[in-house]
Every structure is written in C-alpha cells, then in structure tokens.
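Lecture notes, part 5. Sequence design as translation. It can be helpful to think of inverse folding as translation between two languages: the language of shapes and the language of residues. The source text, in structure tokens, appears below.
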C-alpha cells in the first residue's frame, strides 16, 4: 500500500515492480545504471518512489519494450 509523506504519495520497491510489470532485479539494475538520480528512503533504509519516479520507470518500460520489437522485413 502506498504511503503518504508530507502530502506526497510514495511507493515501495515491490509496488513499483508490480505496477510496471518488471522484476525487482530489473528495477535495481536500472537504478544502478542511473535511471533515477535520487530515491527517498524510509527509516528502515527501504527505497520509496514518488509518482514522478513511477512515471519515469513506466517510460523506461515502454522504451525497452519498443526496442525489443523486431522490425518488419
């Protein structure tokens, strides 16, 4: 369940993965490559993603999906 902090909605790692239909390892690989410049962390050190972060991740999913479609011959 998303959390609200200061009126903003944030999603945990598995929620983002579920929404974007990607694995946790894919998300972590993209983060390692610099897809997002900074992520918020909760008191336990777990990542929290804003709605804007989720949009960026969804855009990457769309971009990656388009790259994988074979071109017609």
């Amino acid at each position: 369940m998303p959390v609200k902090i200061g009126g903003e909605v944030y999603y945990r790692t598995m929620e983002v993965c579920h929404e974007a239909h990607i694995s946790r390892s894919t998300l972590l690989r993209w983060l390692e490559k610099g897809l997002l410049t900074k992520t918020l962390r909760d008191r336990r050190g777990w990542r929290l993603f804003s709605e804007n972060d989720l949009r960026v991740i969804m855009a990457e999913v769309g971009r990656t999906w388009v790259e994988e479609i074979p071109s017609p011959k």
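The translated text above is only one of many valid answers, since several sequences can fold into similar shapes. DSSP finds three helices and four strands in the chain.
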